[in-house]
# Entry
Amino acid sequence: MRFDPEQEELRRTVRTLLERTAGGDVWRLLAEQVGAHSLAIPEEFGGAGFSVVETHVVVEELGAALAAPGFLSTALAAQAILAADSADAKTALLPGIADGHVRATVAWGEEFQTAAESSDDGTWSVAGSQEHVLDGAEADLFVVPARVVDGGGSRLGLFAVTAGDAAVLPVETVDPNRPQAVVRFQRSPARLLSADAAPVLDRILDLACVMISAEQVGGAQRAFDLTLAYAKQRVQFGRPIGSFQAVKHRLADLYTLLESARSASYAAAFAAASGHEVGVAASRAKAYCSEAFSTIAGEAIQLHGGIGITWEHPIHWYFKRAHATAQLFGTPAWHRRRYARAVGLAA
# Structure
């Protein structure tokens, strides 16, 4: 599980861009200077033709900087369109995402509260609502799973709805850098992406867990770096607190936890690219990285002491991100159960 020289150069490029443009238009610069939005989109649809591994590299750096949260949701929406059945939709929708002009997200939740119906002329519309849609207020395009009733039964289809045809209500969350929204559809015109959304959503859930684990590893690394630097600078009883054995032990434990989480996340990224046991690797990474990030961020607050709970120090943002991302796309406990079933350990 090693990144090749091109992938490491991509990492350095994104990191340098983020350092130079703190507070700037990161989304636009990622598109214009890196082409980050196009990485995992095939060339035939306006992309660069790389894989989700390159996207993983970008998301890890964005997680460290707590920057461009909409990148993750747009990348997932693009992969949902790619995994769906409609060639026309891919041709129409993916180029705009690849060049950074279209922001997209997947409007799904624990329950599917949307329904779709077709008219006599073959067009579709979607009605209902979804809560906790990531980056919903900034999205130009929604990828929407919706129930389709036909022949006395129902199935789950996948549709694309433009933001202008939906009502969006921003929602305040514990992590203001990861915005969410309630999105309501009232017979909104929709484009059919797939008549059978179940396998597509399984794929997107796995990719979501892989990408979230990348973000968590990036955030955990930055929280650890901030804490290590503080331990070297903060003087107590005439010496840096990092020189005390108890603090050294705690930092060593955090570093071990961080590297273990990194290994789980990287394994999931390469599994997603190869298609080999991606569900197992994704759930393992999501469960482990969620708890590792929460532990590291919590210990970072403790080791910073009083300064760690002030608005002036950035460490509290990582604490909030850790606990918010732990709940996204399934809790650690849910993914441990999913992992256990996949490997035959469930009772």
Q: What stands out?
A: The chain has a mean pLDDT of 93. The chain has three domains: 5-98, 104-196, 200-342. The radius of gyration is 21 Å.
